[in-house]
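sry for the spam today, last one i promise. struct tokens for design, 184 residues
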């Protein structure tokens, strides 16, 4: 039995779960999500918990069991609390600001880059800490949007300039060490 799959999904107050065949719909204060799962998975809803069960011990069913439970848990957490990923802006002249709901980035290009948030995503900017917050109720969408922003200017290894995840360690290279040794 999958260690993750056998755990119940706790349903917090204010969150409603509907099961229609193999489609699970989750509705909460932050939004509404639906996902369709394989037909061999069964869902039992109790008062404050949801259990995911599989029909047999076939390899594909074992592989999907824990993942389905984790996806439902992410849906419940997303519509009740939401998710947030943070990016740090490093580099002289690099900055981020909000214009309405749009994110405007100055990343050393000849023009500022304007990003319009897709539905379900919102941006926040802390100019003092030089961070960008990507917020939303869909964990997958928040992670993808953060990765797309980082891809605009990933941190370079010599000076560390660019967009990086908060807490990310960037491996630094020495640079032209031979130039200083030859001058002596």
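last one done:
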């Amino acid at each position: 039995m999958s260690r993750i799959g056998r755990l119940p999904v706790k349903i917090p107050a204010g969150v409603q779960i509907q099961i229609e065949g193999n489609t699970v719909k989750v509705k909460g204060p932050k939004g509404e999500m639906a996902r369709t799962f394989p037909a061999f998975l069964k869902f039992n809803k109790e008062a404050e918990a949801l259990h995911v069960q599989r029909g047999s011990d076939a390899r594909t069913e074992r592989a999907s069991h824990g993942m389905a439970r984790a996806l439902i848990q992410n849906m419940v957490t997303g519509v009740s609390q939401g998710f947030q990923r943070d990016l740090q802006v490093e580099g002289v002249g690099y900055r981020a600001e909000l214009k309405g709901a749009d994110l405007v980035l100055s990343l050393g290009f000849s023009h500022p880059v304007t990003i319009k948030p897709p539905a379900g995503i919102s941006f926040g900017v802390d100019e003092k800490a030089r961070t960008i917050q990507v917020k939303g109720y869909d964990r997958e969408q928040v992670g993808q949007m953060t990765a797309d922003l980082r891809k605009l200017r990933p941190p370079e290894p010599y000076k560390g300039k660019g967009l990086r995840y908060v807490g990310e360690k960037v491996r630094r290279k020495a640079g032209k060490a031979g130039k200083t040794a030859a001058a002596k």
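The first strand starts at residue 9 and ends at 10. ok im logging off now
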